[in-house]
Amino acid sequence: MAEAKRQNAAGKVPVATPNVAAVSLETALGAAIGARIRLITNAPFLPTLEGSLFTVCPFTNLLAIATSPPNIVHHILPISAVQHFTILAPQPPSSSGPLTAASLTISPLQTAALLSRAEAAVARLKEAAARKNPSASKEAQEIFDAISRTLPTKWAGTSILVNETVVIASPYRAENCKAVPGQQPGALARVKMV
To answer: Which of 3, 77, 149, 191 is 20 to 30 A from 111, comparing alpha carbons?
Structure first.
């Protein structure tokens, strides 16, 4: 019996395993700032990204990557969306420490384009606000919205002014449509049909 135990124990030899500490994805990405990398993500709209790693933020758990020319675009992704990454080219050498190791620059903003976008957005918001009449009933606003889809329409107090030629007074029915004096009578017939 003792000999059987020795034979069984002889087959079980302890094996030394290396003590390898796992490095978090956040730490590995942080060490690759400035390097050219390829990210494989679980985001359906961006399955693969290739470019220079711009930054990794441990507080927000976000990373920024600058894609390659001709159109440099900065993508901001959650670190949790990264399945794995590959370093394609190491970061450029730097003598001033890890925080300045990235030699990436942000291109200047096109302020004229941004201002025109902002002005257009403000104009759209003002137009949308002008199309809402807070003193009108829900039914009146629905009628206004339906007419404004096909004809130029605006509010004139509590009345609806259609195409600058027809006024629709409350209760906003076909019999309440009146042509503005001096305008074509055909416009009145068209608005009554709508």
So the answer is: 77
Total Cβ atoms within 10 A of residue 6: 8
Find how far residue 82's CA is from the centre of its chain: 18
Instruction: State CA 161 to chain mean position distance.
Output: 38
In Å, how far are 14, 59, 114, 180 from 148, measured between CA atoms?
83, 48, 30, 18
Q: Which is it for the CA torsion 138, 143, 148, 149, positive or negative?
A: positive
3-state secondary structure of 172: coil
Angle ∠(22,27,28) on CA atoms, nearest 5 = 80
Q: How far apart are alpha carbons 33 and 64 in whole angstroms?
A: 10
Q: Which amino acid is at 159?
A: S
DSSP 136-169: S-HHHHHHHHHHHTTS-EEEETTEEEETTTEEE-
Rounded to 5 degrees, what are φ and ψ at 51? 170, -165
User: What mean pLDDT comes out for the span 27-33?
Assistant: 85
Nearest to 53 by CA among 26, 72, 32: 32
Name residue 24's amino acid: S
Beta carbons of 170 and 159 less than 8 angstroms apart: yes
- Is the pLDDT confidence value at 106 over 70? no
Q: What are 138-149's pLDDT values in tens digits?
A: 888 898 888 888
Q: Answer yes or no: is pLDDT of 123 > 90.
A: yes
